[in-house]
Amino acid sequence: MQVKHQFSLKELNTFGIGVFATAYCAAETEADVLEAIGQTSLPVFVLGGGSNILFTEDIQAFVLHNKITGIEIVEESDSDIIIKAGGGEVWHSFVLWCIDKDYGGIENLSLIPGTVGAAPVQNIGAYGVELKDVFHSLEAIDLLTGNTLTFSKEACKFGYRDSIFKHEWKGRLIISRVYFQLTKKNHKLHSSYAALKSELDKQHITDPGILDISRAVIAVRQSKLPDPKTLGNAGSFFKNPEISRELFLKIQEKYPSIPHYPAAEGLVKIPAGWLIEQRGWKGRRKGNCGSYEQQALVLVNYNDATGKEILQLATEIIEDVYDHFGVKLSPEVNIM
Question: Do 120 and 26 fall into the same domain?
Answer without folding.
Answer: no
